[in-house]
Amino acid sequence: MSVQLEKTSSNKVFEGELAKYRFKSTALGGLFANFNLFIPPNASETIKVPVLVYLSGLTCTEDNGAQKGSFLGPASAQGIAILFPDTSPRGAAIEGEDDNWDFGTGAGFYINATDPKYSKHYNMYTHVTLELPEIIEAAGLPIDWQRQSIFGHSMGGHGALTLYLSSTTKQYRSASAFAPICNPTKCPWGEKAFSGYLQGGIEEAKGKYDATDLISAYKEPDSLQPQGTGDNFYKQGQLLPENFLKASRDAGYDEFQVRVRSQEAYDHSYYFISTFAADHIHFHANFLKA
């Protein structure tokens, strides 16, 4: 893939490097896309390391998880790289895409849009699963793409679970999510997104972009999901982890294959995420380093 990858910043952290890159994205209709990539200190020209992909939530960019997630220290200790993509295309200039915080810019929902208004640019599914690995591999960065796992928060938790569960090639070895949108075809955020991005609306999303629908067809899942009981979005019915848990148990998966943990009084913020960040890194290390 002939893509000019530009490094725009670099910081040494936990003996590794956190670098920001940008490139012109074909998947996002020729717009510039940014991502952050943490490379642990054990990586070299001859040693490739496994990678965790972190997907952020509504209104976030590629910076939120990298700066506030508390992932980098544990990842450095485990010798795992972390890729932080953006949450949507930027600068598409589509009428209405900046009218609401929960749709459009910053709210790509990690799907490929089929409505003609959005289908040129809003292809975050392809951007994350295919395009970013291809351009990073072509740039010669020391990532072993045979050892990938994925995790995320809120909308990004939805993305992590659905990208994991919908992969016919088992691209990711494991998945985890902080307070994910578990059943988006039945919550206001998901209904709004799917009705806007998809020509077939909610019906098109079922069985394709909804983790609660997808879990019953997946073989031998490995996922971890903490959920704070003090999370206002949980209380408002946006997240619906109980629906995902029921579908998992109905499909015969036990608490070792699909772990949904209730965390007393924690909310939806990065204080919650950073508290359990090391748990997630260690969970994925069991699969990435096997």
From TrEMBL:
<dbReference type="GO" id="GO:0046294">
    <property type="term" value="P:formaldehyde catabolic process"/>
</dbReference>
<comment type="similarity">
    <text>Belongs to the esterase D family.</text>
</comment>
<dbReference type="InterPro" id="IPR000801">
    <property type="entry name" value="Esterase-like"/>
</dbReference>
<dbReference type="InterPro" id="IPR029058">
    <property type="entry name" value="AB_hydrolase_fold"/>
</dbReference>
<dbReference type="GO" id="GO:0052689">
    <property type="term" value="F:carboxylic ester hydrolase activity"/>
</dbReference>
<feature type="active site" description="Charge relay system">
    <location>
        <position position="268"/>
    </location>
</feature>
<comment type="function">
    <text>Serine hydrolase involved in the detoxification of formaldehyde.</text>
</comment>
<keyword id="KW-0963">Cytoplasm</keyword>
<keyword id="KW-0719">Serine esterase</keyword>
<dbReference type="GO" id="GO:0005829">
    <property type="term" value="C:cytosol"/>
</dbReference>
<dbReference type="Pfam" id="PF00756">
    <property type="entry name" value="Esterase"/>
</dbReference>
<dbReference type="GO" id="GO:0018738">
    <property type="term" value="F:S-formylglutathione hydrolase activity"/>
</dbReference>
<feature type="active site" description="Charge relay system">
    <location>
        <position position="231"/>
    </location>
</feature>
<dbReference type="InterPro" id="IPR014186">
    <property type="entry name" value="S-formylglutathione_hydrol"/>
</dbReference>
<keyword id="KW-0378">Hydrolase</keyword>
<feature type="active site" description="Charge relay system">
    <location>
        <position position="154"/>
    </location>
</feature>
<protein>
    <recommendedName>
        <fullName>S-formylglutathione hydrolase</fullName>
        <ecNumber>3.1.2.12</ecNumber>
    </recommendedName>
</protein>
